[in-house]
Design goal:
With 299 residues, the protein is an alpha/beta fold. 41% of the residues lie in helices and 19% in strands. It has helices at 7-20, 26-38, 42-47, 56-67, 72-76, 100-109, 127-135, 148-161, 203-208, 222-234, 252-259, 285-298, and strands spanning 78-81, 84-87, 116-121, 139-145, 167-171, 183-188, 235-244, 263-269, 275-281. A seven-stranded mixed beta sheet has the order 5-4-3-6-7-9-8, with helices on both faces. A two-stranded antiparallel sheet has the order 1-2. α1 (7-20) packs across α2, α2 runs antiparallel to α4 and α6 crosses α7 (127-135). The longest helix has 14 residues, at 7-20. The structure holds S-adenosylmethionine. S-adenosylmethionine binds at residues 93, 95, 99, 122-125, 127-128, 144-147, 150, 172-174, 189-191, 212-213.
Length: 299
């Protein structure tokens, strides 16, 4: 008798394997892997449970990888972020839902009906800049990263999302590739993990996210110092910086912005209520002139 290759049978076996490996949400994960591989929807599984799984060996390999702790996105090579599909590679951080707070805050700074030049420092998959450009059709962007391999993935994502004509991806050590006074909004989710804590991170992060994307130096602030010190040169007057931060950096990073002369510094929280994004504005001398002008008129 030939083995039962029906979707429902194969799926049940996969759920049992993930359950035995203590993978959270085994039903959801087994279903997600099957849908991704077969190019079907969860409804297809329910509507046609007796149809055979076409890539059965590969599915079982995927389930084995997931059972061994490999993150889902590293198996499928894809991750959804801001409702868009992104390719991930060994050279890129797996985009995190928490980073969607940075996209939300950046969008609030960018009018929908005006041109705007945006730079994303440490772009990885390009998820931040591409999500922003997707929602702001008048904006153009620069995605910078020191990793050539990450930049290839970011470019592939821009092509896939049809955004290549409004973004350029450039190899750069932090902001070095940007021209002075050329940017309206600078966004970044830089590496911010304290070096000595990397070894204690969850195994899925430690083993699968590139260390270049995690390592923030002895106090986790190396990248912020490099970025915050040079951002005033590349921002236009009145331009904004928007930085993702670690949950315990809600004091230290705003202090760096303050020292660098930024105004209107604010901290914003993620859905769990933890500090997640810091904003600051470069002073605009013409605003000061206007204020002084008003003062003189009064006097
Ligand atoms: C935390 S990851 C963020 C990736 C992506 N923006 C995201 O939010 O998913 C930090 C990124 O900074 C890049 N990076 C590390 N050092 C850098 C440097 N000196 N100059 C530019 N980028 C750097 C890493 O390659 C990595 O892609």
């Amino acid at each position: 008798m030939s083995p039962d290759t029906a979707r429902q049978t194969i799926l049940r076996a996969a759920v049992a394997r993930l359950q035995a490996a203590n993978i959270p949400s085994p039903v959801w994960e087994a279903r997600h892997l099957l849908c991704d591989l077969e190019g079907i929807t969860p409804t297809d599984i329910i509507a046609y449970p007796d149809r055979p799984v076409r890539h059965i060996t590969q599915y079982q390999d995927w389930v084995a990888l997931r059972a061994s702790g490999v993150p889902m996105s590293r198996i499928t090579g894809r991750r959804n972020f801001w409702g868009l599909d992104f390719h991930v590679s060994p050279a890129t951080l797996d985009p995190r839902m928490d980073s969607e707070v940075l996209v939300r805050e950046a969008l609030a700074l960018i009018p929908g009906d005006q041109k705007c030049d945006i730079a994303d420092i440490g772009t990885g998959t390009g998820c931040l800049i591409l999500a922003v450009l997707h929602d702001r059709p008048m904006a153009t962007g620069h995605g910078l990263d020191i990793s050539k391999e990450a930049l290839k993935t970011a470019q592939a994502n821009a092509d896939y999302l049809g955004l290549s004509d409004r973004v350029r991806f450039v190899e750069s050590n932090w902001l070095s590739a940007l021209k002075p006074d050329s940017i309206d909004v600078l966004i970044s989710n830089p590496p911010y993990i304290v070096q000595s804590e990397i070894q204690h991170l969850d195994q899925a992060v430690r083993d699968h996210d590139p260390v270049l994307a995690l390592d923030g130096g002895a106090d986790g602030l190396d990248a912020y110092r490099a970025i915050v010190e040079t951002t005033p040169k590349v921002l236009r007057p009145g331009g904004w910086i928007a930085l993702e931060i670690g949950w315990d950096q809600g004091q230290t990073v705003p202090n760096l912005l303050d020292k660098a002369g930024f105004l209107r510094i604010s901290c914003h929280q993620d859905t769990a209520g933890r500090d997640r994004v810091v904003l600051g504005q470069k002073p605009d001398p013409s605003d000061l002139k206007k204020t002084l002008g008003k003062g003189r008129a009064k006097g």
